[in-house]
Amino acid sequence: MHRERRRLCYSGRVQGVGFRYTANRIAQNFDLAGTIRNLPDGRVELLVEGNTSDLNVFLEAIAESMKRYIEDVAVETLPAGEPPLGSFSVVC
Question: Catalytic residues, which ones?
Fold first, then answer.
């Protein structure tokens, strides 16, 4: 299976609405590594790695669950595996 890493920055009304905890709950259904955290500028940053099919389904589930809060998302594909990521977690 092909693994990939993506960094996504969600903007809109994404802080204070349970966005990080919703993503964390959804992530538990997949074999993913990464973090999700609030950024000082009001966006939420998701750094996640896993096999491509799991990543796609995970990101679609977040988009569907949080669609009323997301105005935009910037996506960046990064090299997988460096540095290694631990289990998926919320960073406070």
Answer: 20, 38
